[in-house]
Amino acid sequence: MLAAGTAIEGQLSLASFATIAPSFVPPLIKTFTSLHPKVTIRMAEGTQDELFKGLRGGDFDLALLYDVDMPEDFTVTPLTSFAPHVLLPGKHRLTRLKNVPLVALKDEPFVLLDIAPSRTYFTRILETAGIVPKVAFSSPSLEVVRGLVGQGLGYSILVTRPYGDHSYAGEELAVRPIADEVERGVIALAALRQMRKTRLVSAFEAHCVDFFRTVKA
C-alpha cells in the first residue's frame, strides 16, 4: 500500500494501435483507474506511424502497439505475444483441417490487412514460407477484412481475434491455427527514449505488465 501523500494522480495520455485498442485499452483503463481513482486517462487510436509521431511530439505518454520495425528512439516493454491465425470463410474446404499449413493457401486469394506494420508482418509470414500472396483485396479496417473473408472472397492471416467468429454482417468465419512455425505478434508498450518518466507513467507501465500476465496468449 502506498504511504500517505504518495497516491498516484494526474493525467496520462495513452495511444494504441487501432486493432489492439478494442480488446485491451478499455479493461486497462478500468483496472488502472479503479486502483488509482485520482488518475484520468486520455486515449487515442491510430496507425503505427501516427503513434510514433504523437510520441515524438509529446502528444502521447505511452503507446500500446506491435513490436515490429520499432525505431531506435523508443523504449519498448514487451507485454505478451499471440500466434497469428488463418481466417477462412465458414464453409471453406480447409476448415476440415485442425491446423492449416501455409502451402495449402498458395493458390487462394488473399485479403490483406493493409495497415503498417501489419501489411509487412503478414506478407513476410507468407513469403518466408515461399508463398507469393495473391492479394485480391486489401483494407486498413480489420472488420472490412473479416467481412470480405465472410463473403467468400479470400482468406486472411490475422493476430487480432474479436469475440465471436462472425463478420459484422453475420457471415460465419472459421479461425484455424497455422501449422507452420511462424513469427508471433508481440504486443508492447512504447515510450520516447528521452522522455523523463513520471511516477504515473511508471505505475501504468507496471500495471500493463501485470495485466497482460492474466491474458491468455
From TrEMBL:
Keywords: DNA-binding, Transcription, Transcription regulation. It comes from the Bacteria. SUPFAM superfamilies: Periplasmic binding protein-like II (SSF53850). GO terms for cellular component: protein-DNA complex. GO terms for molecular function: DNA binding; DNA-binding transcription factor activity. The keyword Oxidoreductase does not apply. Residues 9-211 form the LysR substrate-binding domain. Belongs to the LysR transcriptional regulatory family. This is LysR substrate-binding domain-containing protein. It comes from Aestuariivirga litoralis.
